[in-house]
Amino acid sequence: MNQTGSLRRTVWAALIFVVVSTVVLSVLQSRLGFQNTLTTMRQMPVISDGHDWYGKDSWQFMMKAYLQVHQHPGQDLYDAVFFTQHEKFQYPPTSLLFFELFDKLHMLDYWHLNLFNHLIVLLTALGMARLSVVMASELGLESLTADTRSRVALMALGFVSTWFFYPVIWTLYLGQIQAWITCATIFACIAYASGRRGWAGVLMGICALIKPQFGLFLIWGLFRRDMRFVTAWLGVVVPATLLAISTYGFEQFVGYRHALDYMGSRGEAYFGNTSINGVMHRLFQNGNDQIFFEDHFADYRPMVYQVTVASALVLIAIGLWWSFRTRKDPPLPSFLIAQLCFTAASPIVWVHHYGALLPLFMLTFLTILRNTAKLGGQVISKPLIVLALTYLVVANDNRILNLAQGPFNPIQVCFLVAAGVAAWLLIRETTRAEPATGTEPRTRSRRWFGMSRG
């Protein structure tokens, strides 16, 4: 009973920390004249119709691409829109299939797209509420899931933290399709935690139709020998790709490869690009990092390109190696590590691309509590303090740090470093030795995520 009360109070303390830290940091930055997380939150109830600059970040480029393929069938979409008109349409042709559905429903406009995004983020918050309880249950934290008050605390932490997590709410402000990927990732976690690996494959297949780097999850699934995940992923991606080829033409995929080559060799110097590519551009001062240019990318520099490619290969290797190394273990830690690695490997990674760090933080937090309960020690431990510090960097709009110039420019890498530290904490806490129990665990439902080790 005492342990139950202690853990429940820790969860409520985490919820208070999420709210208070965001308010304090936002007020401090507001006093200094900077946009902050609260500024973004105040804009959330507004459903933009596209008359302002916000609320159309993804939609404006996708709409132009959609009109191009329908008004000029047979022409190279990327040659016309990306290279000639200099519009930053960075998505594969399969992404336009979603607009076909909106068009059929007579909802292809900014207002309906942003309304759908609001519903998606609400669904994301509800998903996090559910996922927090599922994670605690499968981690063996019965003291947090056995009574109603503890479950309410967990659900409140999951739900509220979503609305205070800057990479998530920024997608609403911008009008970003990334909100769909974050939501799909969270529900893929729920599917995996519930043993429904096929549904996890379906959801990650949908993500791959929008962002090609999630095609790496096919290899991830093969490394884990998870054929249900792989089959479901293929069951989404293959028919959708064939449909896109039939609808738009194979030449669009050839054009997209050229666009990918171009983006990969250049990237962005703007401070919002949190990838290794962005860090290198800013380190060499290759372009203005305080202005986002809508019509061009950073200039090509051989050193930046070489480091970008090398770092991408390393990050992908880490994601796949950890998958292979833990292939007989429960999949969720490996899944979230791979998601982070595959995202960070891209040459252009904006802050809102890290929405999937939210379930990673939740899993790490609960794993620390699990280890404290089983191995003993203080609840407010060093790992928990480090996790809190990394959360402060990742979960808030800390653009004040982006003023660092010249020799202080590396400060701008703090977001990427914090994300890496959070991933390291998850690996560390997951692999900590548990005390021997003298009993063989059940094969049908592990105390982790309901998955067999076989």
Automatic annotation (TrEMBL):
One of its GO terms (molecular function) is hexosyltransferase activity. It is found in: Cell membrane. Coiled coil: none annotated. GO terms for cellular component: plasma membrane. InterPro entries: GT87. The chain crosses the membrane at residues 12-34, 110-131, 152-173, 179-195, 202-223, 229-250, 303-324, 336-363, 407-427. The keyword Cell membrane applies. Residues 435-454 are annotated as: Disordered. It is a multi-pass membrane protein. Pfam families: GT87. Keywords: Cell membrane, Membrane, Transferase, Transmembrane, Transmembrane helix. Belongs to the glycosyltransferase 87 family. This is DUF2029 domain-containing protein. It comes from Paraburkholderia ginsengisoli.
